[in-house]
Design brief:
alpha/beta; pyridoxal phosphate binding; Aspartate Aminotransferase, domain 1; PyrdxlP-dep_Trfase_major; 13 helices; about 425 residues; Adenosylmethionine-8-amino-7-oxononanoate aminotransferase; 2 domains; binds pyridoxal-5'-phosphate; Aspartate Aminotransferase, domain 2; PyrdxlP-dep_Trfase; 7-stranded mixed sheet
């Protein structure tokens, strides 16, 4: 038994962190690591960012915490306006939370309350993709399509209707277009089987994270899903907890395809690893309807506190001031070329996919059949351990759904330099 009272998941022994600067971390033995996955794709501005530190200290000198029902606070108002501006006013209302799971829970509950307020309480199903990841709390887990996480809780969550998500690497159809048509056909079929007027929303990640190894949608797919939502009168929720706030080279990933959701969740990069802060963004009329019918029955203690929002504001300001959206586009291209070179060199690199600073690498046993390595090979853990030994942190996952194989994410901070990418 471990002598420490701390516990998380099972896993190998870990080094103890000492300190960090920029894209590097050091352990207490003096070894350095390049943070190739921004922690959990959250330290978007690298470590020890002076602008963020100064903004946090300045806010601590004023007031760290006020409760949202007692005071308005300037940082919260300013960050909410910034987020709305980042969507170009596509979404006009903001509800703060402290994590990605809370953002997804909030989206689920707001969407349900919206239909209650409209007298459509028969709408009780969510549609989401398999594979997908939307969080670890029970509501967010209910829309998550990743079996190892779902199984122990399946009978105590209200699981969503799961439909297959885009997989342009392993698709069975002859072309991407045919693949998208087939996905949309299956989605429609499932919605009709449940009853079109029983659906609250379709939830999806425009670019996936660890559960899919950065699988991407395309424009035709998003347009098709938007049309289905409009036809059946349900809402479209984009989960940009991981892909939002500049990670893909746009403020939000949906902006690459120009298909606008009704609700959007974001977190991780918003606090940039300095303080937990997340947000639900949504259409004003949805909020107005809920507010006119008793208000949103939901909230978390730390939501929207001044220190959280001052941190988020400083993170967004830093992305603007340091032109990091441009850096993501340029360095992202460099990273892609490096990963493509790995693919050309090693027969076990099956696919490199992603956008901006969000890349997934899928490993296969056989390139022509795309057969994954057997689970017993424990490849994802071995590759991660090897990379760590070499001083590189990556974010691994094995798909245990049988839908894919081992993959890892390469997602360094948006601040990474040309020289650091090539290390
Ligand atoms: N949604 C997505 C797309 C995520 O990638 C994650 C976390 O990885 C979450 C939700 C849950 O966020 P958190 O871990 O902050 O609760």
């Amino acid at each position: 038994m471990s002598s420490s009272p701390l516990f998380y998941q099972a896993g190998p022994a870990m080094p103890e962190v000492s300190h960090a600067r920029g894209v590097f971390l050091w352990d207490t033995e003096g070894r350095d690591y390049l943070d190739g996955c921004s922690g959990a794709i959250s330290c978007n501005l690298g470590h020890h960012h002076e602008g963020i530190r100064d903004a946090m200290l300045a806010q601590l000198d004023k007031v760290a915490f006020t409760y949202r029902t007692q005071f308005e606070n300037g940082p919260a108002m300013a960050l909410a306006q910034s987020l709305v501006d980042m969507t170009n006013q596509d979404l006009e209302k903001v509800f703060f939370v402290s994590s990605g799971s809370e953002a997804v829970e909030s989206a689920i509950k707001l969407a349900r309350q919206y239909f209650f307020a409209r007298g459509e309480s028969q709408r009780r199903h969510f549609v989401s993709l398999r594979p997908s990841y939307h969080g670890s709390t029970l509501g967010a887990l209910g829309v998550t399509g990743y079996q190892p996480l779902e199984v122990p809780f399946a009978d105590i969550t209200q699981g969503s209707i799961k439909v297959p998500g885009p997989d342009f690497f392993r698709r069975a159809e002859a072309s991407d277009d045919a693949h998208v048509r087939e996905l949309l056909r299956q989605t429609r079929e499932q919605i009709e089987a449940a009853g079109g007027d029983s659906i609250i929303a379709i939830v999806l990640e425009p670019v996936g994270g660890a559960s899919t190894g950065a699988r991407m949608v395309n424009k035709a797919y998003l347009e098709g899903v938007r049309e289905l939502c409009d036809e059946f009168g349900c809402l479209l929720i984009f989960d940009e907890v991981l892909s939002g706030v500049g990670r893909t080279g746009a403020w939000f990933a949906y902006q690459h395809w120009g298909v606008v959701p009704d609700l959007l969740t974001t977190a991780k990069g918003l606090g940039a690893g300095y303080y937990p802060v997340g947000a639900l963004l949504c259409r004003a009329d949805i909020v107005d309807t809920v507010m006119a019918n008793g208000g949103f029955q939901h909230g978390h203690t730390y939501a929207g506190n001044p220190l959280a929002c001052a941190t988020g504001l400083a993170a967004v300001e830093a992305i603007r001031k340091e032109n990091l959206l441009d850096n993501v586009a340029i360095r992202g291209q460099q990273l892609r070329e490096g990963l493509d070179a790995l693919k050309a060199r090693f027969g076990f690199v099956g696919d490199v996919r992603g956008i901006g600073m969000l890349w997934g690498v899928e490993l296969v046993q056989d390139l022509s059949s795309k057969a994954p390595f057997p689970a017993e090979a424990n490849l994802f853990a071995r590759v991660t351990a090897l990379a760590k030994e070499e001083g590189l942190l990556i974010y691994p996952r094995r798909s245990l759904d049988g839908l894919a194989g081992d993959h890892f994410l390469v997602c360094p901070p948006l601040t990474i330099s040309e020289q650091e990418v090539s290390l």
